[in-house]
Amino acid sequence: MTTRTEHTTAVPATTDGTAGSAATDSIPAGTAAGEVAAELAAGSRDRIDALDDRIIGLVQERMAVSAVVQEARLAAGGRRISLSRENEVLNHYRQALGKRGTTLAMTLLELSRGKS
Ligand SMILES: C=C(O[C@@H]1C=C(C(=O)O)C=C[C@H]1O)C(=O)O
Question: Which parts of the sequence belong to the Chorismate mutase domain (predicted)?
Fold first, then answer.
């Protein structure tokens, strides 16, 4: 079966009868690009969307649990933020995911901090 994904929509065809540029050629099956197209057709984007929904749900759950801890500390006369604990969280993400894991952890902490 020859599965081809057309990528000609935004780029006009040549007018002199020659073949179009690589950007306008269809992607033949059996090439790396064809494999990517086949993967997409197989529903990989649906899986990514489903994973993103789960990640968003987990982030919201994390925010709620974090709020409980923060409110309890405030009620006991403490501070909302614990920098030593936040450093543990940052290190955890950096060890698991590398430098960009730290960036992700910072964003999670910002989302979880609530009102300061
Ligand atoms: C939830 C806590 O409170 C705050 C929120 C944190 C978090 O969301 O991970 C970490 C440290 C604190 O700034 C905690 O101390 O564990």
Answer: 35-116
